[in-house]
Automatic annotation (TrEMBL):
SUPFAM superfamilies: Glycoside hydrolase/deacetylase (SSF88713)
Domain of life where this protein originates: Bacteria
GO biological process: carbohydrate metabolic process
PANTHER family according to UniProt: CHITIN DEACETYLASE-LIKE 4 (PTHR45985:SF3), PTHR45985
Transmembrane segments: none
Region span, Disordered: 26-77, 401-424
Signal peptide interval: 1-22
InterPro entries (alphabetical): CE4, Glyco_hydro/deAcase_b/a-brl
Keywords: Signal
Low complexity composition-biased segments: 403-424
Protein name: Polysaccharide deacetylase
């Protein structure tokens, strides 16, 4: 499969290049492995299918398996949210997309898959991509073949039906100088986003797979958030995203604190967590752990593979417990479907999912579900939560800390009381 090598090779380029340093503590992490919960298999929505455009996508009703967000009651302790997300999501011969869908179902989790639009564009149609500041048909992560596109579409369809979110990682993944996304204008970003949507909405036309089943969502409405390549270009992207109706961005670097809005979008940035054995903290991303351990090579010393994976797992778990026992800030984790250093980071992520997602008061959710919950909360409650520092639990306890009665939610906002029915 040509797609196998293109997607796999592109993963390294698609990985984040940002490495942030800060002080961190070391020590061992607690480990628990609760029995996994069985999840119901994905089922198609019952409403009639309404095809969109060439039939690549379709409106099939409300997304299944999305919980209704509820406001915190006075004195109620916030749940511990954990978001597992995947950059450049695509299915190749390693079948990591389908594998982690299975892992999520077994552990009561949903996730966000950031699709690279060029993974739905066959190589022989590459000139249909006109990247900002680059010649037509250029992409730093390649394109796909028809078998790879069919496999990826299948996973996207099933993932959405299971309650997962389909975001975007844009298209050509250009980083650095010479036309990288950090140099793009607001209009460049709008053009890139429009093309990312277009490749999803026309994959049947571009592949000739006229009789294939459509993706079961309207991507213009489904797409509400993104992560920029290499965490670059955020300022102008935010301006474009705000005008296009996006609701969140996860392209920054932050500490483990409660989110706030930036340019009108929820800022759910990547985070810094303890890096065992080091005096600085590490970004919650597989690529950043790898670069700190083996440099830019993806085939480091095999004798170190298990140690490196364990180091990432312990770091993520230390970050989890710091929030779980502390300020309860959502933990944001980003990854790629990759096999770097013998697949040790995929093992580490899977073990973290199995450890944390079935714990009491933990919700492993997509970014969409997280921002739905944030929008449902009383703003004064979120302001209080944001006063808590990294790992800081309320000294007086949660019941006293959030004892104030929240203001009623405005009509139409998730969590608002149902409207009273007028008597007949």
């Amino acid at each position: 499969m040509a797609a196998t090598h293109r997607i796999a090779a592109g993963s390294v380029i698609a990985a984040l290049c940002a490495a942030s340093l800060a002080g961190c503590g070391t020590g061992t992490s607690r480990q628990e492995t609760p029995a996994p919960r069985k999840a119901k298999p994905a089922q198609a929505p019952e409403s009639a299918v309404r095809l969109i455009g060439d039939g690549s996508t379709a409106y099939t009703g409300a997304q299944p398996h999305l919980p209704r967000p509820e406001r915190l009651r006075p004195g109620q302790k916030p749940p511990q949210f954990v978001v597992f997300s995947w950059d450049g999501a695509g299915e190749d011969s390693r079948k990591l997309f389908s594998h982690f869908r299975k892992v999520a179902r077994a552990n009561n989790a949903t996730m966000t898959y950031f699709l690279s639009g060029v993974y739905l564009l066959p190589d022989d149609k590459r000139d249909r991509y006109r990247p900002p500041q680059h010649s037509p048909g250029r992409s730093d992560i390649g394109f796909n073949d028809r078998r790879g596109i069919a496999a990826t579409v299948k996973q996207l369809r099933l993932a959405w039906l299971e309650g997962n979110e389909i975001g975007t990682h844009f298209n050509g993944h250009f980083c650095g100088s010479g036309g990288g996304v950090g140099e793009w204008s607001v209009q460049d970003w709008k053009d890139e986003i429009a093309q990312a949507k277009q490749f999803v909405k026309t994959w049947k036309t571009n592949t000739g797979m006229k009789n294939a089943s459509p993706l079961p969502f309207d991507y213009d409405k489904e797409l509400i958030g993104a992560r920029t390549p290499c965490l670059e270009g955020q300022r102008n992207f935010l301006k474009a995203a705000r005008e296009l109706g996006f609701r969140y961005d996860t392209s920054g670097v932050n500490d483990q604190v409660w989110p706030k809005k930036k340019y009108g979008l929820w800022d759910v940035s990547m985070q810094l967590v303890p890096f065992p054995g080091h005096s600085y903290e590490q970004l919650t991303m597989d690529y950043n752990f790898m670069v700190s351990q083996s440099g830019t090579t993806t085939r480091g010393n095999p004798a170190m593979h298990r140690f490196w994976g364990d180091q990432m797992r312990y770091g993520l778990l230390k970050g989890f417990y710091r929030a779980y026992d502390g300020n309860r800030a959502p933990l944001i984790i980003g990854n790629h479907f990759e096999s770097w250093n013998g697949g040790t980071y995929m093992r580490a992520v899977e073990e973290v999912i199995e450890t944390v997602c079935t714990k009491k008061e933990v919700r492993c959710v997509s970014f969409r579900q997280l921002v739905d919950w944030l929008d449902a909360q009383d703003p004064t409650t979120l302001e209080k939560l944001r006063t808590l520092k990294v790992g800081e639990a309320p000294k007086q306890g949660w019941a006293s800390f959030l004892a104030g009665r929240p203001a009623p939610a405005p009509k139409g906002v998730p969590g608002a009381p149902a409207a009273k029915q007028r008597p007949e």
